[in-house]
Design goal:
Blueprint (H helix, E strand, L loop, with lengths): L6 H5 L12 H20 L6 H33 L3 H62 L7 H11 L7 E6 L12 E4 L19 E7 L13 E9 L5 E8 L2 H11 L2 E11 L2 E5 L27 E10 L5 E9 L2 H8 L5 H51 L14 H43 L10 E8 L7 E9 L2 E9 L4 H17 L6 H12 L9 E9 L4 E7 L4 E4 L7 E4 L13 H8 L2 E5 L5 E5 L1 H4 L11 H10 L5 H16 L8 E8 L3
Parallel strand pairs: 3-8
Antiparallel strand pairs: 1-2, 1-5, 3-4, 4-5, 6-7, 6-9, 8-9, 10-19, 11-12, 12-13, 13-14, 14-17, 15-16, 15-18, 18-19
Helix pairs in contact: 2-3, 4-5, 4-8, 8-9, 9-10, 10-11
């Protein structure tokens, strides 16, 4: 065996040499990077004009794209060389199976905590805001109940209600106004009370609040201000209750200012950071300035913390609430930025529980975190140790395979581990010890395959190259062996221009012996077919000659028929072979299965020759134009599907009867198609041989 002087270099993949100057992303990187460097130097001296600045942005984008493109190209081309070492693969496997899931779980926890923190913060803040809105609604409702139908009113009446109910909020305002009516314009509010510092008291109420009480957030434009002046928009809490006359409405206003922000901070531990209002109108979304400044004008609290980094996720959040436009009744949304430190929110939630329970929960979480980190560290240590053991064993195996590939079958590998790797090393040693024997077996098998190929070629040469051509006959043949060498045999004997002999035989067994018996049978048939006109006498002589040459375990089944076009007859004898199928218009069902008596040829038993001649029958069948005669072996009718069912003689007769209008080749193809469809995925177990003869004219 020739040895490779450098198997390691032949087995290990060589790294791909990547020249960036010869790749499209590399050239793009050089051009764009050089241009960007030149523009940067120029920019240090003078200000770039607008067109040049635009070009710089395009070049900068092209540089990024080329870098990413070149990096992807390097990864693709170097992937196989990088993953050649098993250790690298195992490390990557550990990263993806051990480290990445931990990172993903951590990200999931962070994301889940952020969502939970945002929802809890929004829930606490909204509850506090709803409490204030409810206070304003109670003031409006109580005032409307006390006023009742006492009209006209004076400011003194409304002021007394305000003094009783409105002292809780410094900037709370109260007014009784008429409902807006186009037919009779309003002349101003009936009565007012409170500061009304945030805006002038409304002179009327729109129609959409005339019959139904309302409370919530809204934005409105004070009268006397142009509609395009968005600086006049205000966000406030308003509650309205219609009076019994349905022509006046009690309005309670409370602006969302720094006082309300401080009250919410004190009540919910959540501080308003900013407010962004968007009014949803047909013209699109119109931004409305917030009444509350982004940062309240007060010194920072002692517990304020830096919100930089990932901890800032749990300090600020955004709450989206609905509001109503006072003039139109249209709906909109308010985005309220909140400062909600996690520790304050957690303390606010645990305020309903005992402090011991909260501390216990935090202790449990800390213990679980320590356990998780410990387990991850131990897994990392043992993972590295196992990777080293596995890769060392793989290296030993790889070195051993190289030695065996060079022809050194005496090489043995040593593995101390008592696990599957150790068992694998022992298996490798046993394999290398027996590989020479396997090579010898392979050479012997190759020799037998070559001999079988030669026998197959010889057997194929014994079969007819093509059917003979007779005027008035359409003939089609087929022989499909189940193995390289089969036992089926068929032949044609041109006895005269109007007489044709057809033989179909099946030698018991398969392989070389069957092919040799087939050759002997062909020689006998060629010698005797022109001497004996009777099929019975011919088969009797063939049996007498073969009986002395076949072994005790072999025999031959055969059907031999002579088609005489002048006499319009088919004369045949059957020596233990499959029946003969004849399809004719003479029969009502159109098909006939002919089974003359006869026994197999070549049996080496006492009295077998006399018994053969006495049992053998010769059958003569009249022929007419359109008749179809099918000679076949049992491989056709005994074709078996996956369920063990046989194709059967009846099925073959039905196929021939259904397609008797075709020529012999067409009938043969239909039979093959139906047999293959019936067998399906099952493996063939016997040779299939068939001769189809159709009488075209006589």
């Amino acid at each position: 065996m020739a040895s490779d002087p450098s198997p390691r270099h032949r087995l290990a993949p060589a790294p791909v040499q990547l020249n960036p100057f010869r790749t499209l992303p590399g050239r793009l990187l050089i051009l764009s990077g050089g241009s960007l460097l030149v523009l940067w130097l120029v920019q240090q001296v003078v200000t770039l004009p607008a067109p040049v600045e635009l070009f710089r942005k395009v070049v900068s984008f092209a540089t990024r794209v080329s870098l990413l493109w070149l990096a992807a190209l390097v990864v693709v081309r170097q992937r196989r060389a990088f993953l050649w070492r098993v250790r690298r693969k195992l490390i990557l496997s550990y990263v993806f199976l051990g480290f990445v899931p931990v990172v993903l779980i951590g990200l999931f926890v962070l994301a889940g905590g952020f969502i939970l923190h945002a929802n809890l913060s929004g829930y606490l803040f909204r509850n506090g805001l709803d409490d204030i809105i409810e206070d304003v609604r109670v003031l409006a409702f109580t005032s409307a109940t006390e006023i009742g139908t006492t009209l006209p009113l004076s400011d003194g009446v409304v002021a007394r209600q305000y003094a009783l109910l409105g002292t809780q909020y410094r900037n709370l305002s109260l007014a009784v106004v008429p409902v807006q009516d186009v037919a009779s314009p309003s002349t101003g509010p009936v009565a007012t009370a409170g500061a009304w510092r945030h805006m002038r008291a409304p002179e009327s109420a729109p129609q959409w609040v005339a019959l139904t009480p309302f409370q919530g957030l809204l934005t409105m434009m004070p009268e006397g201000v142009s509609a395009g002046d968005t600086d006049a928009e205000r966000l406030l809490i308003r509650a309205t209750v219609p009076l019994p006359d349905n022509r006046h409405v009690v309005i309670a206003d409370l602006p969302v200012d720094t006082d309300i922000a401080a009250r919410l901070d004190e009540k919910t531990t959540i501080r308003i950071n900013s407010v962004a209002v968007t009014v949803q109108e047909e013209g699109g979304a119109q931004p409305v300035p917030a009444l509350v400044s982004p940062v309240p004008e007060r010194p920072p609290a002692a517990d304020d913390e830096d919100d930089s980094g990932w901890l800032g996720l749990y300090r600020r959040t955004v709450l989206i609430v609905d509001f109503t436009d006072w003039r139109t009744g249209g709906a909109g949304r308010v985005s309220i930025g909140l400062d909600a430190p996690l520790e304050k929110v957690y303390a606010r939630i645990l305020s309903v529980q005992s402090s011991d329970l909260g501390g216990s929960l935090m202790t449990v979480l800390a213990v679980l975190a320590v356990l998780l980190l410990s387990v991850q560290g131990v897994a990392l240590f043992f993972g590295a140790s196992l990777i080293r053991q596995v890769t060392s064993a793989v290296h030993e195996l790889f070195d051993g395979t190289e030695r065996v590939q060079q022809g050194d079958f005496t090489h043995r590998i040593t593995m101390e581990s008592e696990d599957q790797l150790g068992a694998l090393g022992q298996s490798f040693n046993r394999m290398s010890a027996s590989i020479e024997h396997l090579l010898h077996v392979q050479r012997e098998k190759q020799r037998l395959d070559d001999e079988l190929r030669i026998v197959h070629e010889i057997q194929t040469s014994l079969l007819p190259d093509c059917p003979p051509t007779y005027e008035g006959l359409s003939i089609a043949d087929m022989c499909v062996p189940a193995r390289e060498v089969g036992g089926d045999y068929y032949d044609f004997f041109e006895l005269s221009p109007r007489r044709l002999g057809v033989l179909v035989a099946d030698v018991s067994g398969k392989g070389t012996s069957a092919a040799l018996y087939m050759a002997e049978l062909k020689g006998l048939m060629l010698a005797l077919s022109h001497e004996e006109r009777s099929p019975k006498k011919l088969l009797t002589r063939v049996n007498h000659l073969l009986a002395d040459h076949l072994d005790n375990r072999s025999f031959i089944t055969m059907t031999y028929g002579v088609i005489d076009l002048d006499a319009r007859t088919l004369t045949h004898s059957r020596a233990g072979h499959t029946p003969l199928i004849v399809v004719s218009d003479r029969r009502a069902d159109g098909a006939e299965v002919i089974v003359p008596n006869g026994m197999v040829l070549g049996l080496r038993l006492p009295g077998a020759a006399d018994r053969f001649e006495s049992l053998l029958e010769e059958h003569t069948l009249p022929l007419e134009a359109g008749d179809v005669i099918v000679f076949y072996t049992d491989g056709v009718t005994e074709a078996m599907n996956v369920n063990g069912d046989l194709f059967s003689d009846e099925a073959l007769g039905r196929v021939v009867r259904s397609h008797r209008g075709l020529d012999a080749s067409g009938i043969r193809e239909r039979i093959l198609r139906d047999v293959h469809a019936f067998v399906g995925e099952a493996e063939p177990h016997d040779d299939m041989t068939m001769v189809v003869v159709k009488i075209e004219k006589l």
